[in-house]
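EI: anyone free to look at a 246-residue chain?
SC: sure, send it
EI:
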Amino acid sequence: MPMRPISSVSDACAELFALPPPSRKMSPDDRAFRVARMRLLLERFGHPDRAYRTVHVAGTKGKGSTAAFLAAILEAAGRRVGLYASPHVSDPAERVAASEPLADPARLTAIVRDIREMLATVPPAALPGGFEMTPFELVTLFAFIYFRETRCDIAVIETGIGGRCDVTNVVRPIAAVLTPIDYDHTDILGGSLAAIAREKAGIIKPEAPAFCGFQPPEALAVFREVSAARRAPLRLLSEELAELTA
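SC: here you go
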């Protein structure tokens, strides 16, 4: 399939989303391979995700707005910031943004061409799980490369679904942010708040602080347990506000 003219991030994302979809629908069991698959793709491109620091955001309510607020705050503080969010509402470029544009816009075409060439040379059988690359994997890969190309200091990365098995869970964040948990994607994440919270808690990394919004008791218990097991300092919004109003 010939490439369309690419002059913007919107064009780049649209090109990747327009590539042929996998021949079969991904099953819940396939999700277990997503992090390993993304690590393999990032390795082929020199681990662009390690060229900048990251903050990882997961949750059910408000994770998109929280990620956007964090990116805006960091940019106002003088940082070169990348923001990866999903899904988009009207324009695929809503998923990938950087506070500073590419020095050479022609690099957009080169990035997409490199991804397409990789796609043509890596058969599904060579990937964990043995199925074709998905558009979400490819756009995530593009975002990580784009943030390196725009020389971001830090990127705010929002999960797609869940956290533990989400393709974004390859990052090594300086902090995790957990917005309020509620019932969502129960067919994938589980039918209880505790099960959903455990999937979201997959973004908590050893010794990296986790910041937690207001949570139902079942979810908060999971976040406390996982943070303690990983020696990750846990800061709770409820406790911070209690101290301020004491």
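EI: Strands lie at 53-58, 81-84, 96-98, 154-158, 175-178, 210-212, 234-236.
SC: 👍
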